[in-house]
TrEMBL record:
Membrane topology term: Single-pass membrane protein
Cell location: Membrane
Pfam family, one: GUB_WAK_bind
Transmembrane segments: 305-327
Protein name: Wall-associated receptor kinase galacturonan-binding domain-containing protein
Source organism of the structure: Vitis vinifera
Alphabetically ordered keywords of this record: Membrane, Signal, Transmembrane, Transmembrane helix
């Protein structure tokens, strides 16, 4: 089982569990499903619903559930799954079946020739031979590509043991193929519970046994995986050109398309991609889940908003508080300065208007000196209030020891602010 098969399995599982509310994969006014199978464009059921005759699907309603077929006469294959993402289909492979008879020496069996079709067998297929005493080669145009042989051991069951060369063998084929032939060589009698030997080139092998009157009856089937190709790029989609890096196929090149980011729909329909609804209405982050579906991560938005809000709010608060503090400090400084200037002017005026103190003796004190001397304009030191201001009793500032009284005048307006 390779990675592609695992991915295919995952997408199969996903398809069966959650395929609601997606835009239609079929062309407008065309049937999208047949039984359990979704039929996306370029495949289509009915005229004008497919890209060309190779992609025409016939939904046979006489089965329950209805069963889709690739209806082109050169194919006529039962369709089990269509993947747009991996650009492949799985079909029920025809297989070489050799039952007990008397004519078993060599035989050749031809697979369906896909060389003229837009399909080729993917590397996800393997050759499996179920039964014993066979040697099977897979060849193309006379070239042996791979081969395996199985030995007989009738003490172990085909059904319970894996495919490791006893009653069953398996080999991978190292290239994509458009055509193959199985060359089988018989040697001894079949010694298993199976009546027949099966040789299939596919991605799996299913053997169903049911008991009937005479014993067990077995039914074998295998799903083959085919890549499908389109020749032209599609409008409104991201398409890129692939070239099959394989000599066996010649220079096949084809386009693979996908929807642009955050769009969904069918990239093989012209303008078939639409912005994902959950993303269009998403206020958080639109993310992709492992299965390729989108979801809106509101949680990240909420936490982002919280973080943004808290940091913005915190920053703003800090700025506001800082600004207010700065404003207060500046205002206080300015006020003190103004008051100081005013006070000095007043003092000077006062001293000059009264003849008591000669101009020579006039000493101008700074506001801080006076503030200190008046014990921060202590109420207890007020001698009196006059038209010019309040008079405080202070020690002589030049000779603090002498406690010489000195009058200091202050304007009422300039009471110290705390
Ligand atoms: C559906 O399948 C049945 C049985 O194989 C066949 O007889 C019939 O023609 C098919 N119908 C269509 C429409 O192909
Ligand atoms: C096929 O096998 C039978 C008996 O097993 C033998 O007689 C016959 O010659 C073989 N034919 C070929 C073409 O090998
Ligand atoms: C297995 O095969 C041998 C001969 O090939 C036969 O004698 C034996 O009975 C077989 N055993 C079973 C369980 O079929
Ligand atoms: C396989 O069978 C084809 C068709 O019968 C034949 O042309 C080719 O030579 C065979 N290849 C081998 C390796 O036996
Ligand atoms: C094997 O196949 C033959 C013919 O197809 C049949 O008659 C026989 O019953 C089968 N045997 C078993 C055990 O299925
Ligand atoms: C593939 O392309 C190359 C260059 O375009 C050319 O030389 C070569 O013959 C081509 N091969 C085939 C099988 O078309």
């Amino acid at each position: 089982m390779n990675v592609k098969s695992v991915l295919l399995l995952i997408s199969l599982l996903w398809l069966t569990t959650a395929s609601t509310a997606t835009p239609s994969m079929a062309k407008q006014n065309c049937q999208e499903r047949c039984g359990d199978v979704t039929i996306p464009y370029p495949f289509g059921i009915g005229k004008d619903c497919y890209l060309n005759e190779w992609f025409a699907v016939n939904c046979n309603d006489s089965f329950n559930p209805p069963t889709p077929y690739l209806s082109h006469p050169e194919l006529n294959l039962k369709l089990t799954f269509v993947s747009l993402a991996y650009q492949l289909v799985t079909v029920i492979s025809p297989m070489a079946v050799y039952c007990q008879d008397h004519d078993r020496n060599r035989s050749t069996w031809k697979g369906i020739d896909l060389s003229k079709t837009p399909f080729f067998y993917s590397e996800g297929n393997a050759l499996r031979v179920v039964g014993c005493a066979n040697s099977v080669l897979i060849t193309r145009q006379g070239t042996i590509l791979a081969g395996c042989s199985s030995i007989c051991d009738n003490s172990s069951s085909v059904l319970s043991n894996g495919c490791y060369g006893i009653n069953c063998c398996k080999t991978t084929v190292p290239s994509n193929l458009d055509f193959y032939i199985l060359n089988t060589t018989w040697s001894t009698n079949m010694g298993t519970e199976l009546n027949c030997t099966y040789a299939a080139f596919g991605r799996n092998f299913i053997l169903r046994g049911k008991s009937s009157g005479s014993g067990m009856e077995y039914e074998a089937s295998s799903e083959g995986e085919m890549i499908w190709m389109i020749k032209e790029s599609v409008e409104g989609s991201d398409c890129h050109k692939n070239t099959v890096p394989d000599g066996a196929l010649g220079n096949h090149s084809y386009y693979s398309c996908s929807c642009p980011a955050y769009q969904e729909g069918n990239p093989y329909l012209p303008n078939g991609c639409q912005v994902v609804e959950v993303c269009a209405n998403c206020k958080g982050r639109c993310l992709t889940r492992i299965d390729g579906r989108f979801f809106c991560d509101e949680r990240s938005l909420a936490s982002k908003f919280w973080i943004l809000g808290i940091s913005l709010g915190g920053g703003l608060l800090f700025l506001l508080l800082g600004g207010f503090w700065l404003y207060k400090v500046l205002r206080r400084r300015r006020k003190i300065k103004l008051r100081e200037q005013f006070f000095q002017q007043q003092l000077l005026q006062h001293q000059m208007s009264s003849n008591e103190i000669s101009i020579e003796n006039t000493k101008i004190f700074t506001f801080n000196e006076l503030k200190k001397a008046s014990d921060n304009f202590n109420e207890n030191r007020i001698l009196g209030r006059g038209g010019q201001g309040t008079v405080y009793k202070v020690p002589h500032l030049d000779q603090p020891n002498r406690r010489q009284m000195m009058a200091a005048s202050m304007n009422k307006l300039d009471l110290p602010m705390v």
